[in-house]
């Protein structure tokens, strides 16, 4: 039968678990750079409804993540880690990528809620590390810590980088700033599409990082499990 780029198992090389770290770094950096601009954008759009809207959105997102994490873990045992990583990154980054492509904040909120079904990166990461380090418990624990440190690094540099990008290209217009420096105008209506101005560059950068992450998974990340072996019941 023909094989695909997803079907090739990892060779027995030292520290092969390190291949998964760029997947984490790129995904969470793509998310973290948006943290500098999303709060004001959401507040401008939803105003007094912001707490209800985001509370419900995060509730749905968390519930979907709770339900799908075990399913993704089991599915990755059957089809391999690589395709599940690919789908997870693609689904998790849909909300931010939608802003880069269209700027519709309402669509972003809907996609953010749905993206919980794909928020399984750490489930797959820990499974990937376990595949690569089966017998050395201390090394496996250290690898888990390195994965968490990579996540922390993304959120350490991401918001600062996002703020710098937004300020470097901020467009002063009636839709973003009035003469007093206040965001938005009284004429804006709930749910209207708005000019993202400098924030647009941040979302485009996030889209680029997402594409790089997907390309890395497709072309470079080795498969860690041999899916040709029979799976336990």
TrEMBL record:
PROSITE patterns: MFS
Subcellular compartments: Membrane
Domain Major facilitator superfamily (MFS) profile span(s) in chain numbering: 1-225
Membrane topology: Multi-pass membrane protein
SUPFAM superfamilies in UniProt: MFS general substrate transporter
Signal sequence region: none
GO cellular component labels: membrane
Any Pfam family the entry gives: MFS_1
Keywords recorded for this protein, A-Z: Membrane, Transmembrane, Transmembrane helix, Transport
Main subcellular location of this protein, as a coarse class: membrane
Bilayer-crossing regions: 18-38, 50-72, 84-101, 107-129, 141-166, 201-221
Gene Ontology terms, MF aspect: transmembrane transporter activity
Official protein name in the record: Major facilitator superfamily (MFS) profile domain-containing protein
Record organism: Proboscia inermis
């Amino acid at each position: 039968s023909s094989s695909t780029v997803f079907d090739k198992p990892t060779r027995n090389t030292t520290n092969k678990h390190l291949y998964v770290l760029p997947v984490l770094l790129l995904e969470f950096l793509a998310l973290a750079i948006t943290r500098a601009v999303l709060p004001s954008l959401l507040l401008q759009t939803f105003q007094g409804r912001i707490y209800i809207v985001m509370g419900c959105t995060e509730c749905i997102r968390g519930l979907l993540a709770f339900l799908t994490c075990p399913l993704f873990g089991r599915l990755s045992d059957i089809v391999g880690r690589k395709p599940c990583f690919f789908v997870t990154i693609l689904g998790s980054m849909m909300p931010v990528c939608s802003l880069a492509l269209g700027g519709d904040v309402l669509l972003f909120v809907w996609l953010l809620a749905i993206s919980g079904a794909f928020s399984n990166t750490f489930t797959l990461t820990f499974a990937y590390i376990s595949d690569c380090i089966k017998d050395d418990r201390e090394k496996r624990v250290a690898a888990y810590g390195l994965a968490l440190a990579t996540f922390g690094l993304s959120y350490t540099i991401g918001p600062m980088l996002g703020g710098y990008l937004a300020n470097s290209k901020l467009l002063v217009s009636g839709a973003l700033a009035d003469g007093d420096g206040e965001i938005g105008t009284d004429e804006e209506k709930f749910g209207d599409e708005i000019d993202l101005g400098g924030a647009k560059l941040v979302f485009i950068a996030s889209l680029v990082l997402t594409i790089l992450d997907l390309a890395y998974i497709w072309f470079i990340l080795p498969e860690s499990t041999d899916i040709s072996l029979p799976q336990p019941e």
